[in-house]
């Protein structure tokens, strides 16, 4: 799985057969538009896909393993290296344009050799490119020396992952951008792990304190398989295959058309959850180990993670990981009795620090708006979700002990049950669903889905459904009748609302000859 990002020779190396005709037209348009914008063909195209998360929601930033897969929708960036003559002294030139020019206007930047300026407070589409650029340059400087002068580039982007839709358009864009910058600067064998790690850090520059699931799925995925991604002790991604079942299984992704933009909602949604989980980790650690010494920093976004609590508390334990997680669920319940949440004062006392120090540690980099922190609920979700991922994985990896006879409905339903439990936990415990997603899930289950849940950050966006292949049409009809027909959306939006998705391939570079 590790190794360099593949160099594709044809679109067949990237897409499944059924996607080729549509993609051929799209790529031809990209090259043609590039030529008409900039006067010559690009040197290469870098590509990174979006992803759907099958199970393991909101636990990557607590450093628990997740199980996503790449989808066909992606970001493609056509790139040409140009000389620096158009840039002022001490700068290089970056020209970025988008196929959807009216929605995403073109920009030109003269960037000083030594730093890339990103204003995370201004929500601007090119920030994602810049954050990939910044991350890639850090890596390039490590390799080529601190005074390395980056190349000037012309770029045209085409993205088909819906923004704010829970399918990880941002990670696809950041990964494709970082890959483009590396390749343009002469790195033709870009290491997948290094690219993923830099994309994870880069995305934080855009104002989201993200985990590492999306970037891993975007870079590492292999066509035909889902991906099991672990973050500790180091980032490892490996393919996981679904067994042959009868009825056959399909993954259906359904858009809610409720948009949740993390740059805007971060202080009360995503970034707040990251902070709540980190505080819960420190609090639990202090109580369980009767110490106010901070948990040893691991690689969590805030330096401390709920996974770190498990590692420390069960250091020499003989219990299996599943048993440890069950134990942590009960310890969480007994430690955090307050359903209504904890105030800053209560937390600071438990951690043995001042409220000022608490704010500095947790809420200064990414702003947060909260009176109380629901530590009990957040930790309960994380530990129970981490357990569900392990259960899901063990079903997939030892299917024979669960499959009996030619009808595997019972096995399929076990997978689905775990996804349904995730949805319940996201809705009631982690509070990251929304009524529209709940409704899409309820409609799908009634029409025959085994498992239905939100995917990605939630608060809107997309839902994912594990469905018997022969029920896909019935579910689609039920959504149309009971959900989409009541929404104020265009025909075109409706046409793209429901996608049956096959696991797609990850990042690649396509050299234009
Ligand atoms: P989406 O929905 O793609 O923005 C976000 C995070 C993930 C993960 C999920 C929830 C980013 C870039 N991605 O995904 O790391 O935490 O939410 O499981 O913020
Ligand atoms: Mg995102």
Automatic annotation (TrEMBL):
Residue stretches making up the Galactokinase N-terminal domain: 32-80
GO CC term (a single one): cytosol
Biological process per Gene Ontology, one example term: galactose metabolic process
GHMP kinase C-terminal domain boundaries: 413-484
Stored Pfam families: GalKase_gal_bdg, GHMP_kinases_C, GHMP_kinases_N
InterPro entries in the record: Galactokinase (IPR000705), Galactokinase_CS (IPR019741), GalKase_N (IPR019539), GHMP_kinase_C_dom (IPR013750), GHMP_kinase_C_sf (IPR036554), GHMP_kinase_N_dom (IPR006204), GHMP_knse_ATP-bd_CS (IPR006203), Mevalonate/galactokinase (IPR006206)
Enzyme Commission (EC) number: 2.7.1.6
Pathway where it operates: Carbohydrate metabolism; galactose metabolism
UniProt domain GHMP kinase N-terminal: residue ranges: 134-220
Record keywords, A-Z: ATP-binding, Carbohydrate metabolism, Galactose metabolism, Kinase, Lipid biosynthesis, Lipid metabolism, Nucleotide-binding, Steroid biosynthesis, Steroid metabolism, Sterol biosynthesis, Sterol metabolism, Transferase
Catalyzed reactions: alpha-D-galactose + ATP = alpha-D-galactose 1-phosphate + ADP + H(+)
Enzyme class: transferase
UniProt GO MF annotations: ATP binding; galactokinase activity
Membership in a protein family: Belongs to the GHMP kinase family. GalK subfamily.
Protein name per Swiss-Prot or TrEMBL: Galactokinase
Source organism phylogeny: Eukaryota, Fungi, Dikarya, Ascomycota, Pezizomycotina
